Amino acid sequence: MEEYCKIVHEDCPDRCTCFKRTYSPTIIIDCGNVNVSYLPLSFNTNFSIEMWFRNSSLKGQLDSTDYLYKVKVIDISYNAVNKITDAFFDNLIFVETTKLNNNELQTLPTNIASINATSISVSGNNFVCDCTNKWFKYWLLEDEHVVADWLEVKCTTVNGENKQIIAVPDSLFICRSEVRFSVNEHVVFPSVIIGSTLFVIVILVALTFAFRENVKVFMFLYFGIHPFDNRLDGKNRYDAALIYSVENKHTASNILKVLGEKYKVADVHMDAVVGMTIFDSMDYLILSSRRALFFISEHELLNPFTMHAWRTAYKHARDTHFDFIILIAKDQNLERSGHIPASLLRFINLRGVISVGTKLFKGHLEYKMPTHRLKNDDETHIELEHVQEDKNVLIYHERDDPYEQLADQEIIPNLNEKGILVKWLICEFQFGTDIRYEIFEIFSRTDRLIFILSRRTLLDSESMFILSSAITQSRLQKGIFLLLYVVEEIDENSRLVNGDLLEFLRQNIYLTHEERHPVEKLYEAIRFEQEIDVNRDDSENSVGDGEHEDMIGNAD
Question: Which residues contact 304 (CB under 8 A, 6 or more apart)?
């Protein structure tokens, strides 16, 4: 039986109790059978969350919160909830169990069918057998292995009968306000005239709309002007940030070739900042750019990293201008995908995508880029803050590690030449004392720790204790702390890779043995001072097995 212990957390709701599971990084918010009428507005943690709110007096509408993407279990059964918004389910990205039974719900958002839960309970609600719930019946029939109580879900028909929803005929799923069209109730001739007129107008509007971009692009290519556009771009570090997954690396490299000579483009893989979380690194590169270029495919729609980047870029575009986002795709029928977010679908319908297969691909792409571009040697962009003289940088590797010369002959001398004094962590400990009593006191006065990780390091208990402590410090300290340099290929499935290290490798940017310029990467991370402040409406802070390789699990 899994054990958990009581903890004190600043965001734990009044009258509720919070626990930490002993053998997994999970926090439980237990508000069952207490008088709590709403979910916490915020809950700050790097762990997964289980929300136990059974019979806790919840009522009214449930809307999204900034921590729902961390929730893996949510139980709000036996309450008085009467409405749940679309955004609530959009943010339940990693939820496994969802219990909504015995509330006052009359309908559910259709995107509940898209969450990745393995168990959902919805019976005991006030569902109505009308046109808005017809889809609900077919969802229950298709996903009976997910909806645990699908046979017990009932709805009330227009005749007032409470029936098992899967047994209600389709003909009874009607809305009272529906008016059935009858040809006999209309005058034929006026209908033909009006219909024909509207058809001609629609055709003319559609043709004008379809070719408007081509007209603009031709004027841009041959006359060098942006007709009808008045786009003002501020000073940023990059002209654009290119977001894609490794499966589309070849296409992305071609896009970089098209833009690389004229524009300063950030690659979310190659230009990721070491030590940052993957999400923070993407946010930084996106918000430091004048444009966000998305290469979108069906695979990208299932990629949590790309979707997080989309939400960040979309929010920034809403706050500034929608020219900020440029969508590139091979498939022009992305809107037909069942996985596409509503915001992305709206953007495609309103702004369109650039197809890599079109003859005017380069022209369309350059037309949407900033008018006044940065050059690679342009000094007007935002630079990283200069390193402070008292910056405390430490380095560590396992004693007698064959990679010791990497630190002695490459990292330390080169960083010293750049004005950064690097000291050995092991020299900071007092001789003869237990490092367990000093480690966090040393870390508290340290700005960066460079940790060289090899397969030999995994076998050394002292080194792994220091690494686990450094990972803990990086979670507690806002900003960058641990600069991990993995100098050999390491099997994440090895029993020697503990949970702290595995989570860090999956969620943070680190150097690998394939990195061609490791010292430059370390130098950039040491100098980095800017803080990311992004209001994440829905994002992911935990990554499932194998997913971290889909985006930027390292800085190679």
Answer: 93, 540, 543, 547
Amino acid symbol at 495: R
Residue 145 counted as domain residue:
no
Give exposure, 94-109, as e/b (b: 16+ Cβ within 10 Å): bbbbbbbbbbebbbbe
Q: How is residue 388 annotated by DSSP?
A: P
State the DSSP string of 392-415: -EEEE--TT-TTHHIIIIIIHHHH
- CA atoms 249, 255, 258, 264: torsion sign: negative
Beta bridge partners of 4: 21
**277-335 pLDDT tens trace:** 989 999 999 999 999 998 888 777 878 888 899 999 999 988 888 888 998 887 666 66
Domain that holds residue 476: 393-529
Same domain, 302 and 202: no
Q: How far apart are CA 274 and CA 279, in angstroms?
A: 12
Specify if 42 maps to a domain. Answer: yes
114-155: pLDDT as tens digits: 898 999 999 999 999 998 899 999 999 988 899 999 999 999
| Helix axes 361-368 and 188-223, enclosed angle (nearest 10) | 80
- Tokens found for residue 487: 């100098």
Does a structural domain hold residue 137? no
All residues at 6 or more sequence positions from 95 whose CB lies less than 8 Å from its CB, including other chains: 71, 72, 73, 74, 115, 116, 117
The set of residues, in sequence order, having a beta carbon less than 8 Å from that of 379 and lying 6+ positions away, is: none
pTM > 0.85: no
432's tokens: 């003869």
Mean pLDDT of the chain, nearest integer: 82
503 within 8 A of 455, measured Cβ to Cβ: no
Q: Name, in order, each residue with C-beta under 8 angstroms of 255's C-beta and a sequence gap of 6 or more.
A: 242, 293, 295, 328, 356, 365
Count the helix, strand and coil residues of the chain and give each as a percent rounded to the nearest 5: 40, 15, 45
The domain spanning residue 410 has which CATH number? 3.40.50.10140
Residue of 109, 120, 13 lying closest to 61 (CA atoms): 109
- Tell me the residue length of the chain: 556
Domain count, the chain: 4
* SS3 per residue for 229-289: CCCCCCCCCEEEEEECCHHHHHHHHHHHHHHHCCCCEEECCCCCCCCCEHHHHHHHHHHCE
Can you list the alpha helix ranges (DSSP code H) found in 298-391? Answer: 298-301, 304-319, 342-351, 361-368
Are 146 and 117 in contact, with CB atoms under 8 Å apart?
A: yes
At 83, which CATH number? 3.80.10.10
Domain identity same for 60 and 107: yes
